[in-house]
Design goal:
With 119 residues, the protein is mainly α. The chain is 75% helix and 0% strand.
Length: 119
Amino acid sequence: MEELQSVIDSCQQMMGGGDYAGALRKALAKPISTKDQKVKDAAAKNICAAMAKTGIPKFLEECEQSQCDQLMKYTFKGMDIYRGVNKGKDCAKFLKWHEELVKKCGLGVIMRAMVDKKC
């Protein structure tokens, strides 16, 4: 739990310095493995904030399929988190992630994200 909080804090510091892609890489390297919903939500918001500011195509060039699967889970989570913010306009960023992930990985990335309940 403390290790996960450390990753969240480190990512927030990186985002504060403008390194959104680095923060996203760091967050993806340490998957969330807790049953504490508050911690899961904090980590998801952290990752979604980094996703919203990261250049998608360049970032995805370096991603493996397992990372793309994680990103798709957070894409869905981001759409859920931001659906009521700014009349849903912030969801457009996540729809772009969705589109680019499907282009790279095919439709299977959607199914893998939907059946994995760890996010």
